[in-house]
Amino acid sequence: MLNSIVDQTRQAVALAKQNKPLAVIEQDIVTGNYAFSEAVKQRDWTLIAECKLASPAKGTLCGGYSVPELARMFAAHGAAALSVHTNAAFRGSIDDIARVKQMVDLPVLCKEFILDEYQLYAARAAGADAVLLIAAILTADELGRFIGVAADLGMDALVEVHTLPELQQVQQTTAKLIGVNNRNLETFATSIEQTFALLPYYEPGGRLLISESGITTSQDALRLKQAGVNGILVGEGLVTAGDIAAKTRELALLSAKEEGRDNNA
Ligand SMILES: O=P(O)(O)OC[C@@H](O)[C@@H](O)c1c[nH]c2ccccc12
């Protein structure tokens, strides 16, 4: 599955480069101000809510809402930041970033399989505040270079790991935000125990740690928070909930007092 998404993404990037060369994209770039990591740093708990309409493993996840509608609901009910899938395998598009940025005032992570510097420029031109970098599909050299280019553009990189060797490799870089993906991208099996297994090897040192995937309840969220994780990235658990607003408040760990407050809408 991962290999086929990577192959298709390489083809899509080659095509995008023909349609919109880097020189054209660069005209749309306004350098950002690291709003994404700032949003995580400011709170003792961060819900990054993901606009995820579909996944390659499960097909349609959310038929009832558009990406901007999801974004608006998440923002109104306590998400600190948003993640927007832009890859075709997740029924996303780079244009979704701009649509979301028009609608809500939260920092946005571009959820993509980044393989080429061109995609970093395209993400920033669309308005992304951060990009996902997946350690498993990049060489050490690419990873270091892409973190640097993202930083030059004023974007944060959320660097994703799944295994201990990947975590150790990423801790050699300047990554400020590390994400443990609880989902194995080869098998798609998900367990939040993956975060707890890697936690003893995590060296904070000014970094922030996010647990990604497979999180569905406030019990999961509280366990992760109490273990020292800074925040969570949640897609399916939110978009498949019967009451998306209530689930957003639950995973944002809003207290009863805060629940009535409408910060961002
Ligand atoms: O829908 P979930 O299980 O809450 O997961 C969200 C997010 O972590 C997931 O979409 C994700 C994290 N890293 C990725 C890399 C590729 C594809 C998808 C992902």
Low-confidence stretches: none
Number of helices: 13
Number of strands: 10
**Sheet with the most strands: spatial strand order:** 1-4-5-6-7-8-9-10
Keywords: Amino-acid biosynthesis, Aromatic amino acid biosynthesis, Decarboxylase, Lyase, Tryptophan biosynthesis
EC number: 4.1.1.48
GO molecular function: indole-3-glycerol-phosphate synthase activity; phosphoribosylanthranilate isomerase activity
Enzyme class: lyase
TL;DR of this structure?
One of its GO terms (molecular function) is indole-3-glycerol-phosphate synthase activity. The chain has 265 residues and is of the alpha/beta class.
How would you describe what is shown here?
The mean pLDDT is 95. Helix 4 packs parallel to helix 5. It is built from 13 helices and ten strands. An eight-stranded parallel beta barrel has the order 1-4-5-6-7-8-9-10, surrounded by seven helices. It has one domain: TIM Barrel (Alpha-Beta Barrel), CATH 3.20.20.70. By secondary structure, the protein is of the alpha/beta class. The longest helix has 18 residues. The site of indole-3-glycerol phosphate has 14 residues, from strand 10 and helix 11. This is indole-3-glycerol-phosphate synthase. Pfam families: IGPS.
